[in-house]
Every structure is written in C-alpha cells, then in structure tokens.
C-alpha cells in the first residue's frame, strides 16, 4: 500500500464530543490529546515524513476568552508532558502560525521545544497555532516584497517557487493527504497554497474518537486514489 509522505489534519469535533457527554468543551479538547498521540505514533511507525496538525486557527481567536485560555494551557501542558516521548522517538517539532498574539511564556516554550528537537531526523511534526492559510500567503508576500525593496530580488523573478520558499512549511513535501474529522467538508483557511493537489478525506468521527482504525481508513482511502496532477491517467501511469 502506498503511504502519503505528508498528512495534514483538521482535528474537529472536540466541543461536540464533550457536549454530547454533558461535559464542558475543554474536556473535549483534553480528550483530543490521546488521538494526537495515537496519530503521531502511527506516522512514526509507518515512516511517514511529515504530519501537520491544525490546533488553533487565526479565526479561533473569536472563541470565548475562557475557552481560548484553556486551549493555551492545554498546549503548554501537552508540550511539557509529551516532549520526552517525542524527543525519544526523534520527532522534530515545529510550530507554524502568527505567534505575536500568544503569551510570552507560550512563545518561549515553543521556541525551546523547537530548538530541543531541531536536530531530530524522525517524523516532522508541525503544529499550527494562530495559523491561517491566507495569513501564510500574506506573510510570504511581505517577505518577498522586503527582498525586492532591498534590491535582492526583482519583481519579475517572483514565481511559484519563490513564494513557496517563504511559506511556513517551506522545504517539506506538500501534504498528499488531508483529513478532517467532525463531519464538516471545508478547508477552513488551513494550508490553502499547499493543498492544491492534496487528496481530501472527510469523516464523521469526532476528533476524540479518532483511533488507529479511523486513521487506517483514511490511509486506505488514500491508497485507492489515482493521483494525476492534471495529466491523463495513461500519462500518470495510473490508468
Ligand atoms: C476543534 O474542535 C478543535 C480545536 C479548536 C482544538 C484542537 C486541539 C486539540 C485536539 C488539543 C491537542 C492538540 C495538540 C497539538 C496538543 P471544536 O472545538 O471546533 O469542536 P466542535 O466543532 O465540536 O465545536
């Protein structure tokens, strides 16, 4: 079975999972940690190169401050608790997104975690926090504009590769499989540029219930797809 090299996931449905149990929404977010562990371990076992998780979007800042605070505390706790296992398994952690709005403590913890795991050669785990696909394209455009202003780049030389080189996940293969749990069929401003050719998989499972069997079902979906990148089936060798 051919595995994806890079999987991107929108982990949706934590709130509904908790509400269905008469529990507060943050109980759902906490229950969302175990499927993260399961998915990270599975990717490691299968030799998948990269995993990108949407933990907090640029739009999630509109949630009630109490829920935002609980999510940020959860990220802090999870980084501390999970770091030994992640590092022990050679996982390289990287955060993508606009960090300025996060607390100084959280920013510092993220930077430490990245530095601690920077040399690891195993799974590249990217956690999107305060991330938006449009934000990413805007910050990349700004970086190109600065290079033009300084004279290092001509506007006429800006091409797809140049813009791609400034995006947050620069250097990684584009995701070949996108998974969204929780039943909605939307991209919700996740990796807009990078998902151009990605196979999209949606399932009704709420994120806290996403187990190894649910992950394997997504991989089986991927294995059954024909990836043609605009070519005919015969050209792509999939016919
Ligand atoms: C969406 O569910 C989920 C989030 C906004 C938070 C995701 C966070 C985790 C899974 C915690 C662990 C993550 C890491 C990387 C440590 P929702 O609240 O929108 O659910 P709903 O649609 O049912 O309301």
Textual characterization of the structure:
The structure is a single chain. With 239 residues, this protein is an alpha/beta fold. 44% of the residues lie in helices and 14% in strands. The chain has nine helices and six strands; from the N terminus they run βαααβαβαβααββαα. The chain has helices at 14-20, 25-31, 33-46, 65-88, 104-117, 133-149, 160-164, 212-223, 233-236; strands at 6-10, 50-57, 92-96, 124-131, 177-180, 199-202. α1 crosses α2 and α4 packs parallel to α5 (104-117). The site of farnesyl diphosphate (FPP) has 21 residues, from α1, α3, β2 and α4.
CATH superfamily: Decaprenyl diphosphate synthase-like
Outline the biggest β-sheet: 6 strands, parallel
Find the CATH topology: Undecaprenyl pyrophosphate synthetase
Q: Reading side by side through the largest sheet, how are the strands ordered?
A: 3-4-2-1-5-6
The hetero molecules present are: farnesyl diphosphate
Order of helices and strands: EHHHEHEHEHHEEHH
- Straight-line distance between termini: 17 Å
Mean pLDDT: 95
Whole-angstrom Rg: 18 Å
Inertia-based shape: globular
Count every helix, treating DSSP H or I runs of 4 or more residues as helices. Answer: 9
């Amino acid at each position: 079975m051919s595995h994806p090299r890079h999987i991107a996931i929108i982990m949706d449905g934590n709130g509904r999972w908790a509400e269905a149990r008469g529990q507060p929404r943050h109980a759902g977010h906490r229950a969302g940690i175990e499927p993260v562990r399961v998915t990270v371990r599975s990717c490691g076992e299968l030799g998948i190169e990269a995993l990108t998780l949407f933990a907090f979007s640029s739009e999630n800042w509109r949630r009630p401050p109490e829920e935002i605070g609980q999510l940020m505390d959860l990220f802090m706790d999870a980084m501390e608790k999970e770091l030994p296992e992640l590092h022990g398994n050679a996982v390289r952690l990287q955060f993508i997104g606009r960090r300025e709005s996060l607390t100084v403590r959280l920013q510092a913890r993220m930077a430490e975690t990245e530095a601690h795991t920077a040399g690891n050669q195993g799974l590249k785990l990217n956690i999107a926090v305060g991330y938006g696909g449009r934000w990413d394209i805007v910050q990349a455009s700004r970086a190109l504009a600065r290079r033009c202003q300084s004279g290092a780049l001509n506007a006429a030389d800006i091409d797809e590769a140049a813009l791609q080189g400034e995006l947050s996940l620069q250097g990684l293969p584009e995701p070949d499989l996108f998974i969204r749990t929780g039943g909605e069929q939307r991209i919700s401003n996740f990796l807009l540029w990078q998902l151009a050719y990605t196979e999209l998989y949606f399932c009704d499972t709420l994120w806290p219930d996403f187990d190894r069997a649910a992950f394997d079902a997504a991989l089986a979906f991927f294995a059954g797809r024909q990836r043609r990148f605009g070519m005919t089936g015969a050209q792509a060798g999939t016919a």
